Amino acid sequence: MAKSPRADADTTSTMKNSTSPIGLVHPTDTAIAALIFAVLGFLYYETTNFDEVSALFSQNVPPTMFPRILLFTIGAMALSLPFEHIMLAKKGKNIDKDRSQSLPSITWLTMLLLICILALFEYTGMLITMFLVCLLMPRLWGEKRLVVTIAFSIGFPLIVAAVFSGILGVHFESGMFGFGI
Amino acid sequence: MDAFIQGALLLSTPENIGLIAAGVLIGVVVGALPGLSSPMAIALLIPFTIQLEPVPAIAMMAALYCAGTFGGSITAILINAPGAPPAVATALDGYPMAKNGEPGRALGIATISSVTGGIISLLVFIVAAPALASVALEFGPQEYFALAVFALSMLASMSGKSSIRNMISGFVGVLIGTIGIHLTTGVERFTFGFSELDEGISFIPVLIGLFAMGEMLSQSQTLNKHVERIQAKAMRLPTMAELKSLRGTILRSSGIGTFIGILPAEGSTVAAIIGYNEAKRFSKTPEKFGTGHAEGIAGPEAANNAAAGGAMVPTLALGIPGSGSTALILAALIMHGLRPGPYLLNETPEFLYAIFIAMLFANLAFLGIGLVGAKFFSMITFIPKQFLWPAVFVFSMIGAYSGSSSFIDVWIMMGFGIVGFFMNRHGFSAAPLVMGLILGAMVEETFSQSMIIYDNNFMMMFESKIVILFFALTVVSLTSPFWSLLRGKK
User: Fold this and answer.
1) The pTM is what?
2) Number of A:B CB contacts under 8 A?
3) Which of B71, B87, B336, B466 would give a disulfide with B76, using CB separation of 3.0 to 4.6 Å?
């Protein structure tokens, strides 16, 4: 049964003015902040590799200026991430609400399936790719009716291809095997 | 008057009317389907409207935006799962009223409140947008920079878990916008040797990835979630006596929604929540809220639809998005080669009136759609996720690919989908990133121009009173999340 928004409101009001049980530093958010700083550091290093231009040509606004301002600003904000949970707990918000449980395997498998299908696009072309998505994803997500799934995986891509290719003029790659509209 | 007539003529062809009607229909369907949203639908629609003329394309998206806000109330009322974030507050009283055996009445109150809120905000839009545009004509680069910084600061109070994370997302969006060749100097920035990135990252795959793919991966986590559905047989419009009792709530919430919509970055979700809270505060029977009270439906619905019209004011008049959805409409305007802002409204005022007419049509159309199709739209919620989301992925793939017929864009879409999913999981919302991406070019351009004008002396910008005003508002906006803590301590 879908959770009532009133239950959420009750939970929130109960949590209001509470303190976070985690302590001063949130481990997950510390890891996220560390990751952000690593990326920022890499990007800052990249700015040192930008081509140099004379001050006259760049009119005293070198191409590195704005990206570096952004990098420092993001870094300054990221400093507060490990401690933010304390402030959020005082407002009755739980930063861990959506990530308290580990990701189900179905989510990882969905990502993997779609990446694999897209990796084959060069060979399969758009139409076969659509067919594979419409066939394999419902099965992965628990659809047991094989006939319905096959009908969907054949009919839907054909309708989409006819509408987009025929009416809207979108060109569909036919892949190495040359199968397409 | 001439501009109004020209605007009406622009839309008066059967094809354009059909496109607007399609926008309304798509908006209601998308809004009604849990997991799908107006921003997602607009993101998916953008690549397919590139071939259309700008006016009908934007009019279609504006109509979709209005209708999507309304469509979310259908699932909010019938299955307690708001189809769109702005309908969150509607569920608080809409679902209890439906459970009490009055789903038709709940839908009727939601519809009338939405239509009223939408029309009131459109009247404000048609007056305020040209007025704001005429003021903005006096703006120089420094004023625009200050305005853009203010808009970015408003991300702190955008709906989401955390102000800081919203801001980080927003600035990451601005940073992504720096990828490509720097226009002033021709220097390649963050291209990593890929010539495909010389022109930067295209909006479309990013938008589709963040909104559609990210949500699809979120939905994969709740496949087995059972949802109790209430089927509505027909919508029942409120009686005159009921309308009279709700009049104050609807008018107040419409005003609140319009004002909040006009503020940069705030949109229908914030408006709906404030609309609900204010309706409760001014109600003679606040203890009835949460039990299926009519005012608890009228308040948020009038506010969330009013915010849609209000959000178009800064979007068209200033080129600053009023909400996440209008950020996408802004992206569409840019992709059609238009530069939103005072010059657009000054040179082509008929464009403003065309958008106004399209949104007015949408507000009236979903009244009719709701009356005729309530039963149908309630059945839409029965579409299994196992077929709905593969279909969304197919549309996403085609949408990302068709922009420049490059499969790199499909990989960008997939990449941002995965990144967006994990961002969302850790409290970093996608909408601020999109706002930052859209605003990024304007921020850098006006910053550079200001630095050139003032010979790198940043403080000289504050000679302008407007700059001082916007930076003061920025400080207010950035500190607003802390006010509640200070009040709590007292």
Assistant:
1) 0.80
2) 182
3) B87
